Automatic annotation (TrEMBL):
Protein name as catalogued: Pyrroline-5-carboxylate reductase
GO cellular component: cytoplasm
Catalytically driven reaction(s): L-proline + NAD(+) = (S)-1-pyrroline-5-carboxylate + NADH + 2 H(+); L-proline + NADP(+) = (S)-1-pyrroline-5-carboxylate + NADPH + 2 H(+)
Domain Pyrroline-5-carboxylate reductase catalytic N-terminal as annotated: residue spans: 4-98
Length: 270
C-alpha cells in the first residue's frame, strides 16, 4: 500500500487489524501508528516495530489513512481533537465505530473528506472476520484499497450504508447465534453419552466442517444437507424434529429482532 496508517484508539479491533496487515505484508509495522491514551499497553507492539503514540493530532499529521477505532462515546471528542489536522486531499478516513454514519463523521471533519464505514466482527482477532463496508463518497480506488486491507483479517462485503444495522444483526450478533447453536449441539452430545469436553470438541469441528463445505464448494446448504440425508434415515428425523420445534423460524426471528434493536440503539446514539 505504501501509505502510512494511523489507528486512533488501538483496542482489540485496531490491534487485530494492525497484526493482520503486517502478517499479510499489506503494510510494514513501521508504517502503522497506534494511538492510545496509555501507551504502556502498546509496549509489545512498539517492540515489534510499530510506531506508538498518545498524540492523536501528531499521528494524523504523519499518516495518509486514518482508522477511527475509539469507543462511540469518545468519538466526538476525538473528532474535535483531530479536525484541524485533517487534509481532505491527503487523508482517507475509515470508521469502525458502531452506529456512526459517514455523514456524522464528515460533519466534524469536513464535507469533502472521504469516509468509509467498516464493521468487522469479533472473529477479526483470529483473522476470520466477516467485515461489511459502506461509503457514500469514497472513490472506487479507495474502496478497493480498504477492501484489500480488511481482507487481511477475513472476508469483506460492500453494502449500502442503510444496511449496516442489518449487517450488525447477521454478522456481529450472528457470532453469538452460531456459538449458541454449537453449545446446544454439545449439550445434546452429553445427553447421548459423551463427556462435555469431547462433545464440545466434536460439535465445534462439525460446525467448522459444515461452514468450510459451503465456503470451499460454493454450494447451497440444502445441497450439502441432501448428501447426508437418506430415506427414513436418522438425519432427516432429527432435522424434522428440530423444524417442528421452530429451529429455522426462531433463528430468523432472532436475527430480525436483533436488527430492529440495533436500529433503535443507533437512532438513540445519533
Amino acid at each position: 500500500m505504501n501509505k502510512k496508517i494511523a489507528i486512533i484508539g488501538s483496542g482489540n479491533i485496531g490491534l487485530s487489524l494492525a497484526k493482520g496487515l503486517v502478517k499479510a505484508d499489506f503494510a510494514q509495522a513501521g508504517d502503522i501508528i497506534l494511538t492510545r491514551r496509555n501507551i504502556n499497553h502498546l509496549k509489545s507492539f512498539a517492540e515489534a516495530g510499530f510506531v506508538v503514540s498518545n498524540n492523536n493530532n501528531q499521528a494524523v499529521s504523519n499518516a495518509d489513512v486514518i482508522i477511527l477505532a475509539v469507543l462511540p462515546q469518545q468519538l466526538n471528542a476525538v473528532l474535535d481533537e483531530i479536525s484541524s489536522s485533517i487534509d481532505s486531499k491527503k487523508h482517507l478516513v475509515i470508521s469502525v465505530i458502531s452506529g456512526v454514519s459517514c455523514v456524522a463523521v464528515r460533519e466534524k471533519l469536513g464535507d469533502d473528506v472521504e469516509v468509509i464505514r467498516v464493521m468487522p466482527n469479533t472473529a477479526i482477532a483470529i483473522g476470520q472476520s466477516m467485515t461489511c463496508l459502506a461509503s457514500d463518497n469514497a472513490s472506487d480506488e479507495n474502496i478497493i484499497s480498504v477492501t484489500k486491507m480488511f481482507e487481511t483479517v477475513g472476508s469483506v462485503v460492500k453494502i449500502n450504508e442503510d444496511l449496516m444495522t442489518s449487517a450488525t444483526a447477521l454478522c456481529a450478533c450472528g457470532i453469538a447465534f452460531f456459538l449458541r447453536a454449537i453449545r446446544a449441539a454439545s449439550q445434546g452430545g452429553v445427553e447421548i453419552g459423551f463427556h462435555a469436553d469431547e462433545a464440545l470438541k466434536m460439535a465445534v469441528q462439525t460446525a467448522k466442517g459444515a461452514a468450510d463445505l459451503l465456503l470451499l464448494h460454493g454450494t447451497h446448504p440444502e445441497s450439502e444437507i441432501d448428501k447426508v440425508t437418506s430415506p427414513k434415515g436418522c438425519t432427516i428425523a432429527g432435522l424434522n424434529e428440530m423444524e417442528h420445534n421452530g429451529f429455522s423460524s426462531s433463528l430468523i426471528k432472532g436475527i430480525k429482532l436483533s436488527a430492529l434493536k440495533a436500529g433503535n440503539l443507533y437512532t438513540k446514539e445519533s
